[in-house]
Amino acid sequence: MRDLPTGPELRALADEWAAKVHTLSPDEQPVALAMIERCRAIAEREAAAGDAALVPMRAALAALYDRGGDADLARLAADIRAGKFDARGLARQRVRELLWSLTLQKLREGNPRFLAAHGID
Amino acid sequence: MLTSPEAHRTLAAFLATASDATAVEITSAIRLSGGSVQESWRIELAASGGVLASEPRLVLRADAPTQLAASRSRVEEFALLRAAHAAGVRVPEPLFCCTEPGLLGRPFFLMRWAPGTANGAALARDAAWNGRRDGLVTELGQQLAHIHGIAPPRPDLGFLGTPPADSAAVRLALYRRWLDGFEDPHPVAEWALRWLLQEKPAPAGVVLCHGDFRTGNFLVTEDGISAILDWEFAEWGDPHEDIGWLCCKSWRFGILDREVGGLGDRTMLYRAYESAGGQPVDPLRARYYEVMASLRWLILALQQRERFRRGGERSLDLALTGRRPSECEFELLRLIERAEQGE
């Protein structure tokens, strides 16, 4: 339910670059340091949020399908593609709300400043 | 690719032949920042005789080690620049193209240096540009109208293929294929693609679409726009496609209320575009293509992510771009919801 690269992958990449950032030009170093910081911040926010942050989305998925796991996310994508939620009505509204929940959670962990710019905590 | 003295000598020999110079010396080659899709190098040179005798600086464009699926080759980008330059679009004049990959390891071309900044964040945010942004929006409308004045048939742009009867359908089919190439599910992208399929407008006549016409892809001096850059995504298409891309929220650099690339008002863009010869802008059609733009940027971000995950490029920028799709998802959900509410 989270975007890739994973938090641990981002942390490992940040560590890799932190060890060699001194080899970059003076112009490049601040940019690289900012990106290193951002990788670490995303990883930390994800780790802090943990699986608990995904519980509401899993519950919403489970209401649509069986278990509410990642497999059901693939099923949801396939059903949207097949037009199962095209008709205006409660089912479409529920899916829309679920998609909003998934997206907002990813932004809380990946880019809270984006949400703040839109007036969302 | 231009880090060794041998590479400098090879490039100098190529330039001497291409420009009819008796001798060319490369005094420096510096890779320019940005351009995660292609490489750009600033070349400082001293030429004796020939057409480069009074040209101290050029730009070399070369393919990046790995390519995006939709990215045009340097040879094709060179031809596009020639067509745009001839049509009066402000572009760096293209000079020489080398199709021989053995020379520097990859095909490349050279163009004249154009002054200015492409720093989109600065243009959108810095106080130094206050009072000048409306002028830039007007110029963008004019430049876009000039670009869209290039229409098929164009044998010199034959690599663009047969002009599509329904360019939106072609784009959506492409995005379908691209989405199918990712292992992980993307339900919001599916939501948007489904909406785009259902709301697709009737086909219109096609023109040359720049394909990446946005803040950050043009150079600006105190006198205004000096060059439109990065033609690697050009296609035949609906002119509203470029308008939608320019107005896509991803290119506003946080200045959300300035819908035209963080610079200014949409109405001003439309007016300048139409005054410069562009076809009348249909606002609803432009909104449709703005949704398409957010979907496209979502997919391009995923493709950049794959360069990190599968292409072996250990780039911080590429990895972090893999975390940008949720911003597009936010915008897709918002735009589609507004459209369904009739706003």
Please give a handful of descriptors for the protein shown.
heterodimer, A: 121 residues, mainly alpha, 2 domains, elongated, B: 343 residues, alpha+beta, Phosphorylase Kinase, domain 1, Aminoglycoside 3'-phosphotransferase, Chain: A, domain 2, two-stranded antiparallel sheet, 12 helices, 43% helix, 15% strand
Write up this protein:
The complex is a heterodimer of chains A (121) and B (343). Helix content of chain A is 69%, strand content 0%. Chain A folds into two domains: 7-49, no CATH class; 52-117, no CATH class. Chain A has helices spanning 7-18, 28-49, 55-64, 70-81, 90-110, 112-117. Chain A is elongated and about 55 Å long. With 121 residues, chain A is mainly alpha-helical. The mean pLDDT of chain A is 92. With 343 residues, chain B is α+β, with helices and mostly antiparallel strands. Chain B folds into two domains: 5-112, Phosphorylase Kinase, domain 1 (2-Layer Sandwich); 120-340, Alpha-Beta Complex (Aminoglycoside 3'-phosphotransferase, Chain: A, domain 2). Chain B has twelve helices and nine strands. A five-stranded antiparallel sheet of chain B has the order 1-2-3-5-4. The radius of gyration of chain B is 20 Å and the shape is globular. The N and C termini of chain B lie far apart (51 Å). The mean pLDDT of chain B is 93. Chain A binds chain B through residues 3-5, 9-10, 13-14, 16-17, 27-28, 31-32, 35-36, 38-39, 42, 70, 73-74, 76-78, 80-81, 83, 86, 88, 95-96, 99-100, 102-104, 106-107, 110-111, 114, 117-118, and chain B through 33, 184-188, 190-191, 193-194, 198, 254, 256, 305, 308-309, 314, 316-317, 319-320, 322-327, 329-330, 333, 337, 340.
